[in-house]
Amino acid sequence: MEKSAFFNSKLLPYLLLVPQLIITFVFFYWPASQAVWQSFLREDAFGLSSEFIGLENYQALFAQPEYYKAMLTTLVFSTLVAALSLGIALLFATQADKNLKAAPAYKTFMIWPYAVAPAVAGVLWFFMFHPSLGTLARPLRMMGFDWNPLLNGNHAMTLVVMAAVWKQISYNFLFFLAGLQSIPRSVIEAGAIDGAGPMRRFWTIVFPLLSPTTFFLLVVNVVYVFFDTFGIIDAVTGGGPAGATTTMVYKVYADGRLGGDLGSSAAQSVVLMVIVIALTAVQFRYVERKVQY
Amino acid sequence: MNFRHYGIAAALASTLALASPAYAVTELQWWHAMTGGNNDIVNKLAEEFNASQSDYKVVPSFKGSYPDTMNAGIAAFRAGNAPHIIQVFEVGTATMMSATGAVKPVYQLMKDAGEPFDPKAYLPAITGYYSTSKGDMLSFPFNSSSMVMWINKDELKKAGVDEIPKTWPEVFEAAKKLKAAGHATCGFSNAWATWANIEQFSAWHNVAIGTKANGLDGFDTVLDFNGPLQVKHLQNLIDLQKDKTYDYSGRANASESRFASGECAIFLTSSGYYATAKGTAKFDFTSAPMPYYPDVAGAPQNSIIGGASLWVMGGKKPEEYKGVAKFFTFLSDTNRQAKLHQESGYLPITKAAYEKTKADGFYEKNPILQTPLKELTNKEPTENSRGLRFGNMVQMRDIWAEEMESALAGKKTAKEALDAAVTRGNVMLRTFEKTAK
């Protein structure tokens, strides 16, 4: 006899979906639609006057050479941070996956930075590498290297990239490690018996089998660099010098919160949202093909 | 509606009505951005005021940095629960005053509350910054400072600089000597990049930062600080940056410790740095007026203030406003002002408090604290030196600093950088003008 349950009510599936839908609506669609609506308005900081101005905020935005510069900075920054944090985390994870004596301690230490708030991480790096206060900047300067993130844009960029990468490595490490541990030993051992060296085993067996994790992390990291890094940038460089570390999300923050120009800030976040949605779609459309589940 | 519902509604209404007078003491929220020793001063002031009478209770709360506090106030206003008093830094003035209805001007508050209030009792160099062009005081000055040049006397002596430099050329010479004497990374420097080299610099030389008395007379002001004098000064800094005779120290004051550590023996920053310098500098130091270019006719003029003032938010009850007015009268008391000034190093806001401190002989023992007052009252303020009021000033300073940084890094000439700073700043001013109507 077949065991199955039938629900005849047409309403029930929808009722079961309601909690999830409410959460999605309240925490995503509603704020997102507010941002879109705000981007068509010109409003003073206090919200005393509000005027519908259509696409004027967008026009003003795309007339700013600084905005294109911010896009370029974002490209450089996000590529560096995503590539470095994924690469270094993968290296650490493969090392931690070996039979080490102090593996648990090593793993615990690796995860700690993730618990540090972005702004705090920023302040730490700011003080370590401040040209005249920094404990790590002083030796650099003593060696005759003119370290000066206050004026040199490349130095400032290096600094924020290091801080953002440092912050993200733990997260990536955790997932890579879990991914590595789920790869059956027998497959790797079989490879070893067939005479494949460690490098060959890694690239032909481990890396392909790890691809679902890598793909997931790629998506998450792109979102991280695009949205979550402004706290670090604010604390380390404040977008300077001369806008060298002003990424798109930092500009959203600066124009909205420091400048009180909510309309432009909203327009920028809409642009940013569109870019990230497009990027994620591209990743799913093209990169995911290479993923082996 | 039937009678039963009516009855419940009436009962509820009367309970609510009864509930309010149960608070015999009217609470007044005061949001501020003071840290460290200044935070203690704020709490002490509130305690003293609360103990001095029984009708009102001032409740101070710390809300983070200056921009954070201001944003918290704006957000609270939008949500309908703004504090009564909020401390806003000087560059937020235009934003606050343009928010008609969101704030209650101080002169009106005092009039409505029937508190005795004589605007002439306050130092014009300070209140001018926070008043309309007609002289109506909009916010209540709380902590005011100005920019001074801090001098490490020991290091100057070692480098063979016998006299404290008065002019910019003398500063450059002294910096070169300091550099030769071992200060390889910093001959002289300054905190607050734009406040020092654009705002104070222009006022001190009686040249305009913007039209309409630097914006004090209207939001249709246009920036014009890309004149030959400012360009010349920035060019000098660019040239000296190359070998670190001048070394840039960032936009805010995080690098002030370069003075206390002995790295920079000549350092321009706020007079409010006094308390920190006293606590951290292990050498003989003093403050001197900002340098000037001697070939500029009439220089030095007078400096302008920095710091913060207390704004009263709109939409509160009359009895609450009465309490705020009484609190301001309490703050203006001569003895209290004199004591505040002598303890905190911030400037006194009333003439009487300044006179009293002078009469007490305080400045003979502490000449450092008189330097900013001498600068501020050096000459009768002109259109160019009364103060400045530009919308979006918080972010505008960042933009000016960006351009200065480009110039100091050698990517732009002084003229190009200042032209760009003016152009970009004007775009922001026009946006602000549209929303401020």
Strand content of chain B: 5-15%
Helix content of chain B: 40-55%
Q: What are the secondary-structure elements of chain B, in order, as H or E?
A: HEHEHEHEHHEEHHEHHHHEHEEHHHHHHH
What characterizes the major β-sheet of chain B?
A: 6 strands, mixed
What name is given to the CATH topology of chain A? MetI-like fold
Q: Rounded to an integer, what's the Rg of chain A over CA atoms?
A: 24 Å
Mean pLDDT of chain B: 89
CATH class of the largest domain in chain B: Alpha Beta
Characterise this structure:
The complex is a heterodimer of chains A (293) and B (437). With 293 residues, chain A is mostly helical. Chain A has one domain (64-290): MetI-like (MetI-like fold). Chain A contains 13 helices and 2 strands. Chain A has helices at residues 12-38, 56-62, 65-96, 103-111, 118-129, 137-142, 153-181, 185-193, 198-209, 211-228, 230-236, 248-258, 262-287; strands spanning 41-43, 50-52. A two-stranded antiparallel sheet of chain A has the order 1-2. In chain A, a hairpin with a 6-residue loop joins β1 and β2. The relative contact order of chain A is 0.13. Chain B has 437 residues and is α/β, with parallel strands linked by helices. Chain B folds into 2 domains: 3-144 and 306-365, D-Maltodextrin-Binding Protein, domain 2 (3-Layer(aba) Sandwich); 147-302 and 390-436, Periplasmic binding protein-like II (D-Maltodextrin-Binding Protein, domain 2), CATH 3.40.190. Helices cover 49% and strands 12% of the residues of chain B. In chain B, the strands form 2 sheets. In chain B, strands 1, 2, 3, 4, 5 and 10 form a 6-stranded mixed beta sheet that branches. In chain B, α5 crosses α14, α15 (334-344) packs across α16 and α19 runs antiparallel to α20 (414-436). The longest helix of chain B is centred in the last third of the chain and has 23 residues, at 414-436. Chain B is globular and about 70 Å long. The two termini of chain B are 45 Å apart. Mean pLDDT of chain B is 89; it is low at 7-22. Chain A binds chain B through residues 42-49, 60, 66, 126, 130, 132-133, 141, 150-153, 238-243, 254-255, 257-261, 264, and chain B through 67, 71, 74, 77-78, 95, 98-102, 185-186, 241, 248-251, 254-255, 257-258, 261, 263, 392, 394-395, 398, 401-403, 405-406, 408-409, 411, 424, 428, 431, 434-437.
